[in-house]
Design a protein that fits this description.
The chain has about 260 residues and is an alpha/beta fold. The protein has nine helices and seven strands. It has helices at about 5-35, 40-60, 70-80, 85-95, 100-105, 110, 125-130, 145-160, 180-185; strands at about 115, 135-140, 165-175, 195-200, 225, 245, 255-260. The chain has a seven-stranded mixed beta sheet. Helix 4 (about 85-95) packs across helix 5 (about 100-105). About 15% of the residues are buried.
Length: about 260
């Protein structure tokens, strides 16, 4: 049996505990509803910006970031020469450091290569950031049974063919699924003033008429490899050629080739 004094002590302790708990709850509610002073928000922003600036200055001391920008861009270019989506590669490089992000966004040469493995929805970004530079065009065979990539290849061709006047190098593949090869080859009957290398593989036998490739105007063309197509061999596009290769349909390497010195 508890004594009256002990009962009073326990009652007082219980009341004190209740008041502390209530005060803690009230404090929590007050914290939830209380607005953070503007000065405190500004201070936090200044701390964040100071930390970012400090990190950037620290990164600038890394040996690779002390390389001349032209050399660093060359390193980036070489790292992008892999069998993967070029846009993903650029995004990966840009995510490394603030300095690299600015280099990637401000270097038209990194965006002047158009690859059929890049989703066509992203190609307008390449068009814009490449500025006025001529393009390198690369098409690839899609993986077996990958209908999605086959559709992307056709859509890619539809987007780059109208820009023939800005091609510098081009490697094209005409798939069997191409709905209208005559229309595709017809798009190549336009001047290509900047074109230096041209390679064309075709999975289709051509039964149409003679093709006036580049309308005879490709003054910088020096190297060409094509599948057998009825083109005009007297065309002026061959005036500066130093290498030409001709493949039969389905052959992996040219059956006939000639180098001009």
């Amino acid at each position: 049996m508890k004594s009256p004094g002990r009962r009073r002590l326990l009652t007082q302790h219980s009341d004190l505990t209740h008041h502390k708990t209530k005060a803690l709850e009230d404090s929590g509610e007050e914290t939830k509803t209380r607005k953070i002073p503007a000065a405190s928000v500004k201070y936090r922003e200044e701390v964040v910006q100071s930390t970012i600036q400090s990190t950037r200055e620290k990164n600038s001391l890394v040996a690779v970031n002390r390389l001349p920008m032209e050399l660093l861009i060359t390193v980036f270019q070489d790292s992008l020469e892999t069998p993967s989506d070029r846009f993903k590669g650029l995004k990966t490089i840009a995510s490394v450091a603030w300095m690299w992000l600015n280099i990637v966004k401000g270097s038209p040469g990194l965006w002047a290569a158009l690859d059929s493995r890049t989703p066509v929805a992203l190609l307008p970004i390449f068009f814009k950031r490449a500025g006025v530079l001529p393009f390198t065009i690369r098409m690839h065979y899609p993986p077996l049974n990958d209908g999605g990539e086959e559709r992307n290849s056709r859509a890619f061709l539809d987007m780059v063919l109208p820009m023939l006047g800005r091609w510098r190098e081009a490697s094209l593949i005409l798939h069997r699924e191409q709905s209208d090869p005559a229309e595709t080859l017809g798009m190549l009957e336009k001047p290509a003033p900047f074109l230096e290398e041209f390679h064309l593989k075709s999975e289709m036998a051509w039964s149409g008429g003679q093709i006036d490739l580049f309308q005879g105007h490709a003054p910088n063309l020096t190297e060409m490899t094509i599948d057998v197509l009825p083109i005009r061999w007297s065309s002026s596009i061959f005036h500066n050629i130093v290498y030409v290769g001709i493949r039969e349909l389905g052959e992996a390497v040219p059956q006939q080739k000639r180098s001009f010195n």
